[in-house]
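Example 3.2
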Amino acid sequence: MAAVREYPVAEEFDERVVEINRVAKVMKGGRRFAFRTVVVVGDNRGRVGIGVGKAREVPQAVRKGMEKARKAMVSVPLVGGTIPHPVIGTHGATKVLLRPASPGTGVIAGGSVRAVVEAAGIRDVLSKAFGSRNPLNVVRATMAALSQLKDPEQLAIARGKDPSQLRPFWERKGRQENG
């Protein structure tokens, strides 16, 4: 009997171009221009990646960035629609602070941070970028912050606490009234 072959299902990704930059390479005959793109790819369910593509034309640079971003995807632990705890990510002179927010707050973030957290599927978060505001560094600092996030259940076990004690205050309050 022949084996049934399963083909991978094409996943739908949220693809965002954060920045398109023209760069020049000085050569014997003059300048040679190319384009550098910073691209964010996420599945809106806790996975996100960034990629940088460089090519002589914009569409090729975007395509290269998308391919690199898909290969570099990381998982982000989510609690409801927000992050489990505050975190600071750094890259170069850029620092990005991400704080959990109560439901209904929305994404309070600038353009580069917003692209990353929305692609990851985070619906409620507060953020602030410090230092350099270069979009590439801000995106990388945001990814560094997201990669530092820990799952609340694992964190509770490591600390020897009940996982409900590490829940955000808006979730604890509702559970105390109901339970």
